[in-house]
Amino acid sequence: MDYVPTIGLEIHAELKTRTKMFCSSSNDPDEKRPNVNICPVCLAHPGTLPVINREAVRHVLRVGVALGGKLADYTEFDRKNYFYPDLPKGYQISQYEYPLVLGGELNGVTLTRVHLEEDTASSIHPEGKQNASYGAGDEGTTVIDFNRAGVPLMELVTEPVISSAAEAGAFARELQLLLRYLDASEANMEKGEMRVEANVSLGQKSKSKSQKLGTKVEIKNLNSFRAMERAVEYEIKRQKEVLERGERVVQETRGWDEGKQATFPQRSKEGSADYRYFPDPDLPALQLSELSELSRECLEAGLPELPWQRRTRYLAMGIKEEDARMLTAEPMLADFFDSVLKAIPSSVTPQMASNYTTNDLVKLIRDTKGRDSEYITDIPISARNFSIILQLIGEKKVSSRIAKDLLQESFSSDRDPAELATERSLFLGQKASDLSPIVEATLQKHAKVVEDYRAGKVSALQYLIGETMKATRGTADPNVLRELIISAIT
Ligand code: ADP
Ligand code: MG
């Protein structure tokens, strides 16, 4: 029997705002000391009142515009009631009937909605006594850090239209990139700033278009894109085996065990009715058309170039797909590359500039600087100096060998590469007459090798070219040298 996998994603992202969603406590994801960014509102003291964070609303609406979704005119916040130690109010303020954004599309996947809610506190399970800084010691104890309680959280839900783990991975990566381009979220999965839940079901293959979806299983604790892809693959295989045994898939929430590389049952899924959603009476409903700075036109005008727009622009310049992807995925590198494109003369093609950027420059950044985050955050050479090197190569003023040295040196000092080349006379273009004495001297020095070549050892020629090149300190054109040597010894 053939089964068709269907996947729908629910993705949460912590938004970058100065303060929390409903109070003036600081929203600082890097705060290490527990329970410092807190106040009576996010601790749910009785009698406190929440106030909506405009910056967070704006972030979600901007995401909605970028994704081509329909922005709400009327919107409200609802209480989602459940009890858990990390939820001090006993309810989470979220959106139910009237999300900020409906529909839209990303990477070919149709979106259901994007809404705004608040994050919960973090539950920490100190392991043994070494974690005494939390004031707990015994194993089995859970302590709560409220720094995260009330941090603005965007939730994006896709329709169940994704059909493979790879497609799900590509979608989530593109969303992360978009959030970074919009400066809406750092969206780092390892830090929990972006959290992906994958819903997976298997349907039976049928000829009719209107295929019935199978029972879905929701997978949580996915801490990386890799983990998400593996978990989805695992789950497709597991459900297939269940169905092939003639059993039924149980609707439930499963976790991902990174060590075992397997999903495991966590809890059976409660229906949405259990949450007893109702509009939060402490918050006003919003009529967004009354806020002109949140109008579609205004938000649209403020959008940067989006990742897919940038990729398309690079492709149109003749840059190969792989490079266009890599540049776009590294916003700082792409900004650098855009400055280089503006500075180079016509003797340097965009693809050549891209080669030196995505290979040589990136290698230097990795080797010398390392990476202090998931993506490039420091490029020590200026776009101007980098462009000068490209120009020297493009105009055949230095050899590609010398260009690498110039790049290395200019990378560490950010000195003008043309100046460096002049100081050390590294320019190509010595005439044959300048090179002849060097060729002569080298051939005399290596008379034995010359004999070998004459006796038929072809590889000896390469050695002679190499030695002569060294004598010119790499400034000669190897093809010119080859011809000079051959005519001198044959
Ligand atoms: P629930 O009411 O259980 O939260 P929703 O209909 O709101 O379910 O969908 C939640 C997520 O699950 C969405 O991302 C949706 O695309 C996905 N989903 C729904 N049904 C299926 C299914 N049969 N197979 C895979 N994913 C599904
Ligand atoms: Mg739902």
How is this structure best described in words?
The chain is 38% helix and 17% strand. Strands 1, 2, 6, 7, 8, 11, 12, 13, 14 and 15 form a 10-stranded mixed β-sheet that branches. With 490 residues, it is of the alpha+beta class. β7 and β8 form a beta hairpin. The chain contains 15 helices and 17 strands.
Question: How many E strands?
Answer: 17
Unreliable parts: none
Gyration radius (Cα, Å) is 30 Å
Relative strand content: 15-25%
The description of the largest β-sheet is: 10 strands, mixed
Average predicted local confidence, pLDDT: 91
Quaternary organization = single chain
Q: Which structural category fits the helices and strands? A: alpha+beta
**Residues in helices, as a percent range:** 25-40%
Number of distinct helices: 15
Shape: elongated
Give the termini separation: 73 Å
Bound molecules: adenosine-5'-diphosphate, magnesium ion
